[in-house]
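Quick one - first record:
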Amino acid sequence: MSRKSRRTTGRINQSLRDCGETKGGCQLLARLKEINNPAKRKLQWEFLPSSYKSAAELTATRTKVRVSPQSQNPSKLPSNSFGMKLFFALMVLFVLTLAVITVNPGTINVLTGAVIGFGIELPEDEIAIDLPLIKIPEEPTPETAKNEPEHSSEETEESSPSTTAKEPIRIDQNSSSSIIETQNIIISALPSVTALTLNTTNLGRNSTKDNLTAYSTTSDTDGDLVKVIYNWRRNNDSIAILNMPFEKINNTNDNNTWDYSGWNNNQNTENNSILWIATGGYNGSGGTSGAYKFNGTNQYLTIGYNSALDISQSEGLTISVWIKPDSLPNYGVIVTKGRTAGVDRPNYALRQGNGAGATGKMVFYYRNSADTAWNVYTSTNEVLATNTWQHVAMTYTMSSRNTIKLYVNGTEIPGSWGLATEGNDVPYASTEDLWVGAENTVGGAAVDDPFNGTIDELLIFNRSLTPEQIRLLYNNETDIIFGTETQMQQNWSVCATPNDGNADGAVVCSNTQLISNRLPTVTAFVLNSTDPTLNNTNQNLTAYPTASDADGDTIKQAYSWLLNGTTISKLIMPFEKINGTNTMNIWDYSGKGINGSEAGNAVWNSTGGYDGNGAYTFDGNDDYLNLAAGEIFEAAKPLSIVFWAKLMAYTDAYPEVIQVETDTATSFRMGFSNDVAGDYAGFWFGSNANFVQGRTTGDMSASFLGA
């Protein structure tokens, strides 16, 4: 009695002929869903009949393999009757199976128009699986094309179906274009992000001074190199409106223009046989570094119209891209939003070259909203070179001429607008497509001003990135957001997509980080004497700072006075919060760098201190602050020590406030004593024999000691 099983199949849009034309083989992806009991799973290849020109005899063959959960390494299976060899590797429990069919040159009995199916047999109580069918092509006759069979889910018996057909296909590398050449069809395991964490430089502060960094862990059961494509989000919205690294996403060398921004800019077209190169990217050969190569004649990419790509007045714009020019024509368009339909109305555009004699210059341009004037910003110098990768970027707040910046390899370069009025115009609101590598001008060719060379890693933002962030992009640190990009109360997160050079794995998104504080600033500072006309020793000096805080926080100034350019202080330590946390607030403002660390159980109290802005409390047992080495006391020189203290109880006869070294010529201690009548403040220096005692006005227990 045979056991019934379920099988589902689904077509793929890739034929063996298409694979053959790539000359490098193609790769097709199959995904397996989780299966309750992998020990019951069976892997099979199956050759199904086709309604194309039926003739020659063919017996379809199934190769079945019982797959155990422990099987992880490739296992060679017996060749089937068509000379095709099957290999596979399986992840533990579920998800992905790797399989390779190699079609070797020679004459083999592959049915014209046959379909190769990749399937999994399951018991009736388990879930169905989506499977691809790989079709060996032949042009159908009009009579048979309309009868092409549909494949759908159905209950099947375990059997080996057979069919008849004629005209076997000859596999010969030297044959005409209708003959299939040697190729590999690979069903590969997807890469994965197994962990993703978003942290700030200072975990306790999360201020605009801190960078955000994504930490990801990846895996790939095939052993492929994995590139993580990051897309940053602010308050759940992507900060990029186009994130197009041009990596292989469909196991083929075509249509690798996937947008990772989340704005769905994926209605794209490759024009005039543009070439995608798997190892052509800016970060070298191997791995997952794909890029598009433009012939400088008629090739370009079309990114279908999406309002998300429009930039309006007062809105920020950043374009970041890697280019490798093969030559420098008079004009070579890198990217243009608009000016793609025979009208000169780009919303924004970036190109190489500004005519003869200026082909190495960078140029940003747009049309004004009235369609009456150009706004063109050109680099002062020729900054581009051939046959070398260069990172180029521009930032601009639209209609604000003084905000524009051009960058090459992370460094700002000088430039200028053409006229004094340019750069302030409102941009034209183009509803045309975005092109990469060319434009279409009024009266020009259908493909005008084409770029000649390779383009990689195109990013467009509807915000003007900071110089620090541009440098991070140049350094390929896309896993970092510089602190200057953030503002208080923004919620930041990042999504990561793993790519193994064949396809993408599942997208994983991180935790969020709330930016909670912006730093205060001193906007003006004046130092005056009591009588500015005299400035003699009878006059006081007074500092008048003007400070602001975007969060509305109260500001306290920490002053360090200088005499002839040198600080007069040996140590300035107010114990204010400096790192967004309640620990390690031991910072020296004198400039001497005598900062400290906590020891024992010293506790920083945010509302403590004589002014309520923070202070340390000590339990009288083993608490202290350990300061870095530095010269505080100099023998035979004046010394002043000033502090505020609140003594809660005597737990020692000599509670000390500060101590520097012990029993040396420059050592000293300062604290309190109650071992004689009344309470005293004491100062010890050199050795314990040298003791200076100054009595307080009244007993400390009455005037100093407090609860």
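second record:
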Amino acid sequence: MTEDSSRGLSDLRSVADGASLYYLGTIVVNIVGFLLNLLLTRVLGASVYGIYAYGTMILAAVLPFANLGSDISITRYLSANKDDTAYQQRMLGLAYLTTLAISGVVAAALFVAAPTINAYTLEEALFTTAMQAFAIALPFQALTQVAASTMRGLERPPEKTVIMVVGPALQLIAIAAAIVVGYSLLGVAAAFSVAAIMAALFAISYSLVRADLRPAAGYSKEEVKEFYNFSAPLTLSQAASFLFKRVDVFMVGIFLASADVGIYNIAVLLAGVIAMPLAGFNQFFPPVASRLYANEEYDTLQSIYATVTRWSITASVIVALPLFIYRTEVLAIFGPEFVAGTAVIALFVAAQLFNAAAGPANDVLMMTDHQYVVMGNHFVFGLANVGLNYVFILEFGLIGAAMATAGTLASLNALRVLQVWYLEGLFAYSLEIWKPIAAAAVASVVMYSLHLSFDGLILAIGGGALGVGAFLATLYLLGIDEEDRRIADEYLGMVPDR
């Protein structure tokens, strides 16, 4: 094995290590999230659940402003400066100071603006107080992000995964306890904030104990300028990303009823599970990409980019097929009201597959100093999504919001792939992509055929399991790519000799 090949395999191991642990953690988080949303929809109903979903969506929308992009910046500066501990500690101190100051201001503004937001959107009596309770959680969520990104930047998947899992688990426990003792929406909102405080205290203390770094001051004017020159565009980029990712929920709340918000939100959350594999790879691909780009190891970066994209497509299709084919049965679990979201979930499954097919293209752009391109993408497509949502919601109702946002997301991801190819000469695809496509076709036939004999929850669970089995078996019979086999043989120990 050549030296370059060996280094490439080592970097792929780093990404695979982070992705596998993150994937396991995300499975736990999604199970916890599923149980939480199932509990809330069954107890609160579609209308009151819609108020909860709307409040948490607004919280997620303002979160990028709360740390001014410090979470992403710290990932870059920790990973690219492993040999300069003093520099790392100054950057970590700047990240925490920025987050603490900005998040407090944003949370206070959100608290004060809650009545106005309610007046222009849901016009529900319970929303204002609930939104104010959610606002209290904002600084603590922002600090938790910085703690998690510290572990990400240091390329420590186990610690990052622990932080990722603890927060949602505390949230489920706190909210379930509130419901058990008889509280409704306002008690749930208060429990949400208590869980956020507990999660932040754990994440910060845990990250400081596990890392060999301590936040420090003494950063120079040049270091501050460098930090904010990277983080400020990312803040605007993340804020703009809200326009094409979640503005649809916001506008559904403006033009439709709170029950529609609840139905729409469940469909979006379920389709979001398809993004799990790519999110896993993206947790530890950026530090690797940043390091390779800084060291001018472009051939290795090309190889890893293409491999991770292929992995993303393969793993995402496994999740997407059962959700698309059995979408009615899955939505019925949350209650009969939520079956109205079947068309919404179908559109978002398609959009998420486009997202998976783009692989880590967005992270490649960011880690190769094209953060302004990323910001421009988000603003242009975000504004387009706002306009399309306005027109389509008024014309088609709930399904119109899905048409607008799914179309925007698919178009943006196609453009990202082309931009990476044009700007950096990196292309994400190879002829090997036909194998997961063929495996998906076989699995689809298996799952659709089960409709003839089964229905309900049994069909969703049993059919999904058989479909995934058929997909994996077909993929194995078609032959595993040599690079994947090397990773599996030398790192995971999973693939037997044939």
